[in-house]
Structures are given as structure tokens and as C-alpha cells.
Amino acid sequence: MCLVVPAKLFVLLIVFEVCNGYNFNLEDIFGFVGGLKFNPAEYLKVNKRDIFFNLHTPNYPYPREIDEDNLDLVENDKPVKILLHGWVGNENVRTYQNITREYMKKGNYNIIHVDWRNVAVLPYAVASVCSKDVAKVISSFLLNLNEKKRIPMHQFHLIGISLGAHVAGLAGKQIKEKLNTQIGRITALDPAGPLFEFPPAKESEKLTKYDAKVVDVIHTDGGIVGALKPLGTIDFYPDGGIRPQEGCPLIPVEKDVGDSFFCGHYKAVEYFIRSINSKEFVGVQCKSWLKFKLGHCKGNKDNIMGENLIPERQGSFYLVMK
After folding, report:
1. What are the Lipase domain coordinates in residue numbering (predicted)?
2. For a surface tag, which of 92, 96, 109, 256 has the fewest beta carbons within 10 Å of its beta carbon?
3. CATH at residue 170
């Protein structure tokens, strides 16, 4: 059951919703009607019928919906990549297709597209607060794969985009609570900031570095749409993890305000896709973007941003993309 969400971040959340084309009202966004708290649980109760899992493998290049009745389609000797879209996303987004294409070039994987659009399409604050319930369905699915297909937890790699990054983290927590073991890896692509970093959510309600053996984060719109503070065992900050990112305007273009406003946020996804079959992005460990720019971190250890990172090299890493 979803929890009550506090009514904060008035201006930012309105911008966040309007730029994505949602016709908002205050009751929907903030859960307050005439000064009374509105409970999102009355708006939605998440159950497994709201969430779909679609499998791609070299043997099944076209998506096959899977559930507890046909888990045999998953090859238990292959790594499992689980893709989680963000707010207002769905399984048909080009991002899923591009990530899947690059992994198919790389080798043999089980690629599972999680489609939680029935929740993600709701107003941002409601979808955020219901992320824990979405995570329960996902963790239950992974536990089934672990039990029935004998797929060890270290073979699971969750790749979460924006709000999907927190869903991935919550699923990781739930598995750890049940089995006292961690999934192998979570990759968080510019994890959502509103209602998670500002105002700060409890660690039990958001992605943390304890949610998998390796939690790597790519920050590209920190302090605006994405989170800026370190959240993982390894955090990458291309161009400081803030605006403007390579090819993105600092100020949204009036005639294309939606795409230009979120340009930096989506760069994390672009960088990750490019990283799957390359090692082109190398970050240097440093305490801050300023110290990195001033050259104070020369000689520090480095790490490869994206798919091919070195998990033992932990910390915050900065790199220039331009």
C-alpha cells in the first residue's frame, strides 16, 4: 500500500510535470485538498497485474512476456540485465531498444524489460511514493527466478533510469531483507532528485550504496531533476554531474522546452549506452568537481564509467565530456 507523500517542492514539481506534458492539478501532485492530506493509497494500490516483464535473448530477439508460469524461457547460465524506466516511461521507449541492441552486440544475455507504466504514468509525487510497491513486485519476480531457475543473485544487474533507479534500490533492499544476500549490481542513471534528495528521503525509501554488491551511479543533472550527492559504491560525475551537459542548453529553449529541460537528465542514459561496448569514458577519483578542474587530483586512481567499470575502485570519479 502506498504511503502519504509530503507536499513540497511546489515550483519544481510543477515544472517537472508540465515539461513532460502532464495536465496537473494540485490535488494530484501534492496530495493536499483544502488543507487535508490526500492519501495516494486511495489513488492506487499496486499489484503484480500492473507490471509486466518482457524477455529478450539471442533466441528470442522479439519480446516475450514472462511470468511465474514460463520462467523456463530465461537461460540460467547467462547474466540477467533488468531495465527499469522512469516516470511516464514504458517498455516501448527507445532507451530500452538501444540498451538491448548494444548488449546483444556484446554477448549472450537475458535482457528483461520491466514495464511499470500503469504506475509511472501517474503524477510524479504519487508514482514516487508508490515506488516501494512497484519494487515489491520486482523483488518477488527476482526471488522466483532465484528459487525456480537457480539463478544466483550475483547474476542480476538492475539498470534504473531516474525514478527507476530508486525502484531498483528498493527492490535490492527487499531481497537483502528476505535472503540476507545482495544482488550483484545496480546501475543508476541520473537517479531522480525531487522527493528523494530534496527534501531528503529516509535511506529506507531511496537508492543507497547498500542495495547491491556494486551500486554505480552516473549523475548528469544533479540538483535539478537528478540527485547530486553520492548514492553508490561508485559515483561518476561527467562534466561535474550538473548542467550544462555536452550538447545541452543551460537554459531550456522556448520552442522545445520539454526536451531541452530534460536534455542533461537523459545524458546519463546516452553515456551508459555508449559505454556498453567501449571503455571510452574514464573518470578520476576526486573530492569535488572544483578540485578536479583545478588539477588537484592528478595521479589519483581512475575508473571506467558505465558497463565496464572496475568494481573494486570505489568512490567519486569526475571526467570532462566536452
Report:
1. 75-306
2. 256
3. 3.40.50.1820
What angle is formed at CA 233 by the lines to CA 231 and CA 237, rounded to 5 degrees? Answer: 60
Q: Which triple of cell numbers denotes residue 82? A: 533488468
Residue 159 lies in a domain: yes
Model pTM above 0.85: yes
pLDDT score of 253 = 67
> Does residue 1 lie in a domain region?
no
> In whole angstroms, what is the distance from residue 319 CA to residue 322 CA?
9
Instruction: Verify whether residue 162 is a known catalytic residue.
Output: yes
pLDDT given at position 47: 82
Please check whether residue 133 lies inside any domain of the structure: yes
pLDDT of residue 24: 39
Secondary structure E strands in 149-297: 156-161, 183-189, 212-218, 234-238, 282-285
Catalytic-role residue among 56, 113, 219, 265: 265
The Cα 72–Cα 84 span in angstroms is: 22
CA distance 117 to 127: 10
Q: Note whether residue 35 is domain-resident.
A: yes
Q: How many domains does one find in the chain?
A: 1
Q: Is there a catalytic annotation at residue 69?
A: no
What pLDDT is stored for residue 33 in this prediction?
33
Mean pLDDT over 110-117 rounds to 96
Which grid coordinates belong to 40?
Answer: 495516494
39 pLDDT more than 80: no
Which range of residues forms the domain containing residue 106?
10-319
Lowest mean pLDDT among 193-207, 228-242, 258-272: 258-272
Q: For residue 63, give the amino acid letter.
A: P
Among residues 128, 162, 275, 316, the one annotated as catalytic is 162
DSSP 262: T
